[in-house]
Design goal:
Layout lengths: L1 H9 L7 H16 L3 H14 L6 H17 L2 H11 L7 H8 L4 H10 L5 H10 L2 H8 L6 H10 L2 H9 L7 H10 L3 H10 L4 H8 L9 H13 L3 H9 L3 H12 L3 H9 L4 H9 L4 H9 L8 H12 L3 H8 L5
Helix pairs in contact: 1-2, 1-3, 2-4, 3-4, 3-5, 4-6, 5-7, 6-7, 7-9, 8-10, 9-11, 10-12, 15-17, 16-17, 17-18, 17-19, 18-19, 19-20, 19-21, 19-22, 20-21
Length: 332
Amino acid sequence: MTSAAASRLGRIRPPSGATRLADLVDEAERVAAGGEAARALDKVADLLLAGAGRLSGPQVSALDEVMTVLAEGAGTDSRGRLARRVGGLPRPPHKLVRRLADDPEASVAVPVLTSCAVLPDDLLLHVARRRGPAHLAAIARRDRVAARVADVLANRGDQTVMAVLLGNPGARLSLPAFSALSARMADRHGLAAGLAARGVLPAQRAALLRTPGPPGPPRRAVEAVALRIRLGLDEADIRSWLANGRVTEALLGLAHLAGCPAARAEAAHRAPGVKALALVVRAADLRLATLGAFLRARPGPAPTPESAGLAVALYRAVTVAQARERVAGRPG
C-alpha cells in the first residue's frame, strides 16, 4: 500500500475540487493506520523536495494535507528527519511545519523553529509559553524574533536561552525584556557585553547591571487585578491571564483568592519544587487544570510528568481550609 500511495501522490496536479484532495487524504489515513506512515512520509517528502521549484500552490497544499496526516502516524525519528528536510524550504507546507514546530520532542521541533521563516508570531508565542528550554533556545536563534515573543523568552528561558536571545541581533528586545534579563541572568559580564553590543546607553547599562533588589509588581498589573477584584475576580480571569502570558496578573489574582501575600504566591511560582505552588492553588480553591496552567507558565523547563503527578498528589492531600491556614502562616 505504501508504494501505491507514493505513486499516486507523485502524479499530483492542481486538485480540481475537494473530492480529489479528500481522496488523497483518505489514502494517507489508510497508510498511517496500516503502520507504514514513516516509509510513506519519506517518499512523499522526496516528491516535495524534488519538485520544490516546480510545484504550484495547490499542489503544495495537497502535499501539505497528506504529509500532516502521515506525520501524525509516524514516529519521532521519522518526524525529526522530515523536520530537518522541510524546515529550511523557501515555500514549505504551512500546516505541516506548524505541526512540527509545536512537537513536544525537541529533535522534531528545533529544526523548524530555528529555520522556518513562515512561522507566525502567534504560533511562536504558543510554543514559547508551553515548551522547554530546547524549544525556547531554537526560537531565540531565529533570524527575526518579535518583541512580544522575546518578552516571553526573557521571562521563561533558562540561562542559555537568555544568553542566545541577548546575543541575537535579530531579536527585538523591549524595556521589559531588558529588565527581565537584568534580573535573571547570572552571567553579569555576558549581560554587560550584550547590552553594549546592542548600543544601550551607558547610564541605562549601569541601571540594568545593578544588583537587582526584590521587584514589586508593575503598577499596570496591580490596577488590572484591582479592577477585576471590584467586578468579581474568578478562576476564568486567572486562566485568561495565564493563556495570554500575563503571569504577574495571574499571580496577584491567585494571592487574592488564596488569602496570602503576593510575594508568597510569587515565591511559590518560582520555587524549584511544586509543593508550595500546589498549596497556594489549593488554598485559592482553583481546579487542577489551573494548577497545570501555572506549572506550564513557570520560568525554566516545562514540568515533567513526574513533577506534574507530584503536584496533583500534593494538591489532593489537603482541603481548601487546611491549605488556606498554611499559606496564611497559621498552624494547622
